[in-house]
Amino acid sequence: MHSTFSDGELIPSEVVSRALAAGYTHLAITDHVDPSNIEFVVARMVRVCRELAGKVRAKVYPGVEITHVPPRLIAPLAALAREMGAKVVLVHGETIVEPVPRGTNRAAIEGGVDILAHPGLISEEEVRLARKRGVLLEITSRRGHSLTNGHVARLAIKNGAGLVYNTDSHAPGDFTPWDAALKVIRGAGLAGKDATRMQENARKLLEG
Length: 208
Fold this sequence. Notes:
By secondary structure, the protein is α/β, with parallel strands linked by helices. Helices cover 43% and strands 16% of the residues. It has a 6-stranded parallel β-sheet. The longest helix has 16 residues, at 192-207.
């Protein structure tokens, strides 16, 4: 999910409020970062999440989505984000609808991030590597990015890689309740048991 700390439309507290209204019990706010803003974003998001802890009906975690950076910068930025207190580190993968630098998917997996978001036409070799490294692959409801959900799901199931459902929320209408999420998941060719496993993967990542 994204806030006004990057390209979202809502301040963090409203992100949480909208998520609560959609039935969420756990969420990570993962604004877009690169070397220009990572310290600003992480420090403030850590503070916001600490302030909200125990005051709202959901567990809220600080995170980042490393976005459109040269692949060689991914690992050091991920390490810096964790050092500063980010609980969840994503990388904006090689979606087919944006000019993401080639090699981003592999660099993210090798860099040990938590989630490779919208990995586009990810290769089978990269999916196997994600399984080996424990990197979750995203199934998303985000328009454009979701066009390759079926490809990602098929290779992940074939090779035993972990999946996670992600709304990639930027605006008020993006917070999909679980019944809507299930339609996206089924549309990717996945079954109910896969949806349950995706929830378990997300909870384990956040609470582990």
